[in-house]
Design a protein that fits this description.
272 residues, alpha+beta, Uridine Diphospho-n-acetylenolpyruvylglucosamine Reductase, domain 2, Uridine Diphospho-n-acetylenolpyruvylglucosamine Reductase, domain 3, Enolase-like, domain 1, five-stranded antiparallel β-sheet, four-stranded antiparallel β-sheet, 14 strands
């Protein structure tokens, strides 16, 4: 299908991008990589009156290394994240997850900021971002603010970002003992269920994708983990959750996958 007619804007700075939605009476959407928004527009499931293409804003790209964390510009592509030696050394879960997103075209166009802001409940990076306890920096008409991952994801494709805010960067703590494992039926498919794990001594942070309307922490499994009991802790991965059923999998099967994948992710993280 053909998208509904829309205005197209190309701001040269973040300040310009923030000001542009006010120029349009209807809905204006920010365009980063476009792999989520454009297909929806072609199906007319999304029909913004204007697209604000921020792809030309150079300040939104780049990777900055600090002793305890890594800051990544929102327009840094999945391919750049996957190939970064800084990220591979300090936060391997992020580099490895980015390397497994879609195909090479998706990885060369899709961006880390766009993935986080889109908040797809089957996306890989939102769950990883949640397990890492990362932070997103957003800028809007009222200035800049930092949003913790736990506060960012609200519901299906919904975040706590305001309509006039733009994610400018994400910051993730370094986490050498970390891993992400997902199950999909075919290569390049969305994850039916995915498990992101960060192990820190005798504790672990565990986040799941595909089991709710947003990425969630597997708090029961986290509480059960003692540092060496991956199988026992993983048995609680679905406790308190009510995974949805759809054409891809039943809720019961998703719960089973959560337990299996959390065990695999814990074992992989513990082996680092």
């Amino acid at each position: 299908m053909i998208p509904q007619a829309f205005d197209y804007e190309q701001p040269e700075s973040v300040a310009d991008a923030i000001a542009m939605p006010g120029k349009h009476r209807g809905e204006a959407r920010v365009l980063a990589g476009g792999h989520s928004l454009v297909p929806l527009m072609k199906l007319r499931l999304a029909a913004p009156d204007a697209l604000i293409d921020i792809g030309g804003i150079a300040s939104l790209r780049g990777i900055t290394d600090t002793p305890d964390a890594i800051t990544i510009g929102a327009l840094t592509t999945h391919a750049q994240v996957a190939s970064s030696e800084v990220i591979a050394a300090g936060c391997p879960i992020l580099a490895e997850t980015a390397a497994g997103i879609g195909d090479i075209q998706v990885r060369n166009r899709g961006t880390i900021g766009g993935s986080i802001a889109n908040a797809d409940p089957h996306g890989d990076l939102p769950a990883v971002f949640l397990a890492l306890e990362g932070e997103a920096t957003a800028e809007g008409p009222n200035g800049e603010r930092t949003i913790a991952a736990a506060d960012l994801f609200v519901d299906y494709l919904q975040t706590s970002l305001s309509q006039d805010e733009i994610v400018t960067s994400v910051r993730v703590p370094k986490a050498a003992r970390s891993a992400y494992v997902k199950f999909n039926r075919r290569a390049q498919d969305w994850a039916i269920v995915g498990a992101a794990v960060v192990v820190d001594g005798s504790s672990a942070r565990i986040a799941l994708t595909g089991v709710a309307s947003r990425p969630v922490r597997a708090t029961a499994a986290e509480a059960a983990f003692t540092g060496s009991n991956a199988a026992e802790a993983a048995g609680h991965a679905a406790d308190g959750l009510d995974p949805p059923s759809d054409t891809a999998a039943s809720g019961e099967y998703r719960a089973h996958l959560a337990r299996v994948l959390v065990r695999r992710a814990l074992e992989a993280a513990m082996a680092r």
